[in-house]
Structures
1.
Amino acid sequence: MAAEIYERDGIKYEIHVQARSGQFSARWTCPSCQKSGGLTRWYHFEKEAIDRNKVSAFIEHHTVFHRVSRRAAS
């Protein structure tokens, strides 16, 4: 399983990619709080699976748990 790092506001998310029958799926993991998630769909292109999970990590997790925390601390 391949992995890619996606960094947002100093937090490095790990995007793990799986391949099956010529298609790709990915999931993200936040090492800061040990949460994971993302889209479980299969895509024709590895880049699409990675890019969609970067968006998922940002919208579903980062803006809710990390970005809000930073604003409250400011």
Note: The chain has a mean pLDDT of 89.
2.
Amino acid sequence: MNVEYDREEDILTIEISRAGKIDHAEEAGSFIAHFNREGQLVLLEILDASEFLASLIKASLRGRRQDLPLPAGEAV
């Protein structure tokens, strides 16, 4: 697996597999998934990556806070 970030274009590229040449791609919002002839995911591009990663980190931190015990008398 290889991960690259293009700061200028704000695109995160994740090479999942080097198995076969890219045959086609499908776009869903900010994601572009590239598949080989057998339909296996080869490459994933995340457009507006900084925004996506920021929201992912925020969601992760919210989940962690829910797992942590709160001091007595403190509400969420």
Note: The first helix runs from residue 49 to 67.
